[in-house]
Amino acid sequence: MLTREDDVLQVAADWRRAGRGVALATVIETWGSAPRPVGSHLAIDEDGNFLGSVSGGCVEGAVVAEAAEVIADGRARLLEFGVADATAWQVGLSCGGRIAVFVEKVG
Q1: pTM value?
Q2: Helices (H) and strands (E) in the chain, counts
Q3: Which single residue of 18, 87, 94, 101 has CA 20 to 30 Å from 54?
Q4: Coiled coil where (predicted)?
Q5: pLDDT per 10-residue tile (average), the chain, 107 residues
Q6: CA distance 104 to 74
Q7: 31 and 69 in contact (C-beta within 8 Å)?
Q8: Could you give the C-alpha distances from 56 to 16, 19, 36, 93, in angstroms and in order?
């Protein structure tokens, strides 16, 4: 049986096999009460479809937007979110924690 994280990785692989541009976002570090643990994934395709979670819904929209750029230019990005950074008023973690998310193109 596949775990939820396995499902996300499988869907990303299926999207790639279908010829779609895909990015994978992975939680690489957390501080405080971040809602998802290190290793959590969000798979995003070129049309903005996504599966998984890196923050329980707090910053997924911002990550999906960055993933579109990653798919387009192929350059990975390190994103940091939390209540103490400059984006706190645009996107933030309601729980008060902070997370670092690495977004990379698949394939």
Answers
A1: 0.84
A2: 2, 5
A3: 18
A4: none
A5: 72 96 96 84 96 87 96 97 59 66 96
A6: 8
A7: no
A8: 25, 28, 7, 9
